[in-house]
Specification:
With 301 residues, the chain is mostly helical. It has 12 helices and 4 strands, in the order H-H-E-H-H-H-H-H-E-H-E-H-E-H-H-H. The chain is 63% helix and 4% strand. Helix 3 runs antiparallel to helix 6, helix 10 packs parallel to helix 12 and helix 11 runs antiparallel to helix 12.
């Protein structure tokens, strides 16, 4: 019976298959961590720059030679036609196969191809620079799975990839790691606090039958955002209706003034601590909140 159950169990994936399954298992893509190879990328751009510099120098030599021919009173107009007429240049290069025109056309194509490669590399690097670095919490969780650190026996803590790839996610490369699941908007303080201080309440279990890492879990962004949204609604409603309810039963003008001041200060602290609102937004929201309370008090309701 046990043998039959073992045969029906899905075997644990290993190597690249296991790591790919782990990366793709997170619905919020927080596990999509990859190295961007900043040093190699910068070196590639420098190489491309040097190649373009060389091609630019060749083009400059041709331009200076054309200028010298144009200034020579003995020169024939046909001697510079390849420098002024594209159709003639193409005809002499592709049709007549004149050596001067062929060399010029080859240089044009080299510059065009290398410039396209260089500009494409620049744009790709600009896009990579916009990707965010993962948090230490996410990086540690990824390394836990990558190095099998969830296993109790330290002798089994080995990387899932071997060879040079075993060092892909070492601590020294943390600054070179980017996350493809980076959030587009700045995270508010309340969400950040819950994410780092109370992550267990929003965890989703990863399929241990496939990944073999029952202790590695991913956080559900949906659950976290729903909880933060509900909490924000409750806080906003509590500050508005709670203060109005309190002021309704207070008849002393001095006490009402003190309560309005206290509620406004508390509201400002709540907005600043639970959101990422800027100073101007905090001032505006506090002014609106205080105005509502003042209108309620002055309305003699």
């Amino acid at each position: 019976m046990r043998d039959e159950e073992k045969d029906n169990d899905q075997p644990n994936l290993i190597g690249y298959a296991n790591l790919a399954a782990f990366v793709s298992s997170d619905k919020e893509h927080s596990a999509t961590l990859f190295r961007r190879f900043r040093s190699l990328s910068a070196r590639n751009l420098l190489y491309l720059e040097s190649e373009l510099q060389e091609l630019e120098a060749q083009q400059r030599d041709i331009d200076l030679a054309d200028a010298a021919v144009a200034d020579d009173p003995r020169a024939h107009p046909d001697d510079t036609d390849v420098a002024t007429d594209w159709q003639i240049l193409r005809e002499k290069a592709e049709g007549l196969k004149e050596r001067n025109a062929v060399e010029r056309m080859e240089l044009v194509k080299k510059i065009r191809s290398k410039l396209e490669e260089y500009e494409s590399a620049l744009l790709r690097n600009a896009a990579l620079n916009k990707l965010e670095q993962p948090s230490h919490q996410v990086f540690r969780a990824f390394r836990t799975h990558f190095h099998n650190q969830h296993l109790e026996n330290p002798q089994n803590h080995y990387p899932r990839l071997t060879g040079l790839s075993a060092d892909l996610y070492e601590e020294e490369y943390y600054s070179d790691i980017v996350s493809l699941g980076s959030r587009s908007e700045q995270e508010d303080r309340l969400t950040s606090f819950l994410r780092h201080r109370h992550p267990k309440h929003f965890m989703r279990k990863i399929d241990k039958d496939v990944l073999g890492s029952p202790s590695v879990r991913s956080m559900s962004e949906y659950r976290l955002q729903v909880f933060v949204g509900v909490l924000n609604v409750l806080l906003a409603a509590s500050f508005l209706f709670g203060s109005i309810f309190n002021l309704y039963y207070v008849k002393s003008p001095q006490k009402r003034l003190g309560l309005i001041s206290g509620y406004t200060v508390a509201f400002a602290l709540c907005v600043s601590l639970t959101t990422n609102a800027r100073k101007a937004e905090i001032f505006g929201s506090c002014a609106a909140y205080a105005a509502v309370l003042v209108v309620f008090v002055s309305g003699n309701l």
